[in-house]
């Protein structure tokens, strides 16, 4: 690799790593590429079901090789998956995966869209998926995406013709896309949308197919002769990387799903099968016969004459020389009759103009958050690094239209800094819009049609820089951010959020009372502003008792916290209910918890959830006390076990030896631990020695790809799963101690389970194992491998694919009783 190419490649990698925090500053190469994209008036929309379903190779090719405006419509936000990098699951995992998709799009050049569909977990058939999702609602969202994004071509990731052969969400995404292709241009369908957009007819629909979709490879080879082919290994000299390298970096943003991967290079073919629409005139070009020049829109030819000349004669050393032509084109774009292209192209050309000027405009708050209708101090930085004369006529706040600063000339490379206050004139919080209302199992509730499909809540705190460039007015808007530095991390950017004046937090979302003894419940009160005071109380179900009735809090400093303690006494009989936290300050009621999600690869996220917990009075017996736990991926079970009185120690796998396991009454291996904890394969001999000497070892589910759980007897994992949480449970060995000691387990204990029964059950095991339970989804054969136990030496080895990692944090009583039995097996005497 030549030195200058290597430099560009390294710079590119560094810039990608900073995307999560810092605004992008374009090089001449990147300006030129954006100019090429400005001059291509073609649009493609890729459609699938989940984050990480998208083919980043094809999205990158469309966006970077063809220069098409390219979107990815993910019907869900991936809430139903597992998390390999932290404890967040369900809606919080969906927030992370949303941001990982945005990070991927920043790499591959695409844009991101969503529907309101809630990822409720694995589904085996699209009929089930569409029933739980509410087919008409999700279909309307797909139609909305097509009408607003206005793609010329749509590409489905999955095959609509093969229901039941893959994840039901996957097939459903393709089925909805095929149906929406025709409905989007019918003004009688979802007519209320037309208040905000117009009908649209895409030209063509494809499926991004491959040999994976064919059981017989020879059939694929024969069919592929008629497919459109893309060499997605094409090299981009301006970037210093190839398309497939770019795609690898994009897909590696899905870190919570373990998608970190090596980059790949070289020739590689992707295929698109034509499904419907206008026939292809040229099978090598999905846009063939579609006008993708400026001439496709009324009065666009004049703009094209200007911008094609800029592209053909682009000055990489001094891009600012093109400002007169760019501003002329900008003025003409503003006059376009076609509202869709006017908005799209105005946004694109503004970015190019700003970059050509080397214009630096920043509004940085002194804090990362503010409260509604308060004031916040902000630092302004304005810098023109070109020799083009610019007049800054004014700076205005978009919230109250107040003029923050009046104008002056921006001289070359002379920085202007000043401080001002902004009034946060809004009652809207910055939290994810799709979480503001309680969702159903299959759908998020969003009232605003204009919000549907957006990847995140639009920023309400913006500032307009009103400029005159080359005698023409132009306004560039900037989000308010917080910029600061840390010695071990360098410069950091955080989004500026509007958050409540008071938030509260319970440590645990489920509070388990294993007897009638009162528990002290600690509650954290957080101030969103200076000098916050008020009172806080707990609302509990009938027959539960809280003392005291309320507690006064006083917090002087913003973001400081005060911990208060309540005593909660459960009833003597078994009971379940909800504990709600209510805080009152200055006459206003606050019922939210603030959850902050902060990983290096995505921007910091602030999520507001209801400040509440499930409370359970559970009649449960347990034997033994000290539990050793080897954590797996996104595992919250240790805290759940502590709540019912176990002493749980997290075991560092590196420290396992032949002696230090003997102190535990049981050792539990966390979910997917053999998938993600590399040291376990070297320590398995000590774990089995522990069992052989009389220990009790419980191994929870692992995926079956290339993993060896090191069981003492032969056992093979499969992809068998039971996704219906209401499916019938059949007891195979009713007399087994796992179902009788110290708690009696019956079919009733499997009521109230959430999301699923379990996953990746073994489908083969040797005669040493005893299967305990049988279950299956509708129309499938019995699955008997969800809970297996084998005697090994003096101890017991248990393997279970039951989804305890979901059930215990959800406070499912029967799951707690069964898990207590797993921990107690062999201790009857």
Instruction: State which percent range the strand residues make up.
Output: 25-35%
Stretches with pLDDT under 50, minimum 5 residues: 1-19
DSSP, total strands = 43
Distance between the termini: 71 Å
Helical segment tally? 17
Largest sheet report: 7 strands, mixed
Rg, alpha carbons = 29 Å
Helix content: 10-25%
Q: How much is the average pLDDT? A: 94
What best-fitting shape do the alpha-carbon axes yield?
globular
Could you give the order of strands across the largest sheet? 3-2-1-4-5-9-6
Q: What structural category arises from helix and sheet content?
A: alpha+beta
What's the short version?
The protein is an alpha+beta fold. 23% of the residues lie in helices and 29% in strands.
Task: Show the helix and strand layout.
Elements: H1 3-18, H2 28-38, E1 43-48, H3 56-65, E2 69-74, H4 90-108, E3 111-114, H5 126-133, H6 135-149, E4 153-156, H7 168-183, E5 204-209, H8 217-223, E6 228-231, E7 235-236, E8 241-242, H9 243-251, E9 269-277, H10 300-312, H11 323-334, H12 339-356, E10 360-365, E11 369-370, E12 375-383, E13 390-397, E14 403-410, E15 416-423, E16 462-469, E17 472-479, E18 481-486, E19 490-495, E20 497-498, E21 502-506, E22 510-513, E23 519-527, E24 532-539, E25 545-547, E26 551-555, E27 561-569, E28 575-585, E29 588-590, E30 592-597, E31 605-610, E32 612-617, E33 626-630, H13 637-643, E34 647-650, E35 666-669, H14 673-676, H15 680-692, E36 696-699, E37 715-722, E38 730-731, E39 758-765, E40 769-771, E41 773-774, E42 787-792, E43 795-800, H16 804-807, H17 813-824
Parallel strand pairs: 1-2, 1-4, 2-3, 4-5, 11-20, 22-32, 33-34, 33-35, 35-36, 36-43
Antiparallel strand pairs: 5-9, 6-9, 7-8, 10-12, 12-15, 13-14, 13-16, 16-17, 18-19, 21-23, 23-27, 24-26, 24-28, 25-27, 28-29, 28-32, 30-31, 37-39, 38-41, 40-42, 42-43
Helix pairs in contact: 2-12, 3-9, 4-9, 5-7, 6-7, 10-11, 11-12
